[in-house]
Prior knowledge:
By secondary structure, the protein is mostly helical. The protein has twelve helices and no strands. Helix 3 (62-88) packs across helix 8. The chain is globular and about 55 Å long.
Amino acid sequence: MWIIAAVLSAFFAGLTAIFAKCGIKNTDSDVVTAVRTVVVLLFSWIMVFIVGSVETLTAIGTKSLLFLILSGLATGASWICYFMALSMGDVNKVVPIDKSSTVLTVLLAVILFDETEHLAVKLAGTAVLAFGIFLMIEKKEAAQSAKNNRWMIYAVLSAVFAALTSILAKIGITGVESNLATAIRTGVVLIMAWSIVFAKGKQKQVRTIKRKELGYIALSGLATGASWLCYYYAIQNGVVSVVVPIDKMSIVVTVIFSYVVFREKLSKKALAGLCLMAAGTLAMAIWT
């Protein structure tokens, strides 16, 4: 069941990037992050009440609560960097760098959680995955200014914070119902996202969001909520070093939809990289 949950997480995460890209055409990325977090929070708490886990809120230990909060802060930082990168660069360029968090997460999971079973397969799969990511990362044309390449910096920071998110969440989610853990983390992200909006004086821009873009932002939030619920169920019940690579295969969904929606084509080199990423992930999922 946790593998199925990881696959569903990847599917919804892939849709998230596409909906978000549609929603930030004319809207500031910080505002988009803050608004869609409201949607995710509502979705998360509805699920908490549906499964009846709200009663266990007072039973959460101090350690679990601390790491869930830290995971939420890491998620907020990752989101802010991710959507800043999306607002500057192409989906097919930003997403592969963001997904490179897989490599760091797998290595940290092996070290911190002693997930050494089938270690050779995991390391080989991670190496193939890393090489595939490298092939997919395409540089902008040399004629473009350095300013236009800032998306890469934000994408790298997004990957680092995303890796920390998974590790901190694995520790914090121990003994906590996964839906409740997701809702708590989302609350932290909400506070962080709106604090940044108000700190930069962008709160007035919320009223000027076009209805069509607001719809895409809401859909992005719903997709994120669904992805998170599946993802944290998977890492709570499964192996982090296997769940994370499967989840990161959301890039396949993203690439397909980015071609259909934005007509963003992959070069032969990038396509080869995508195939390697899929091969490395499948190897870890099947043989571990």
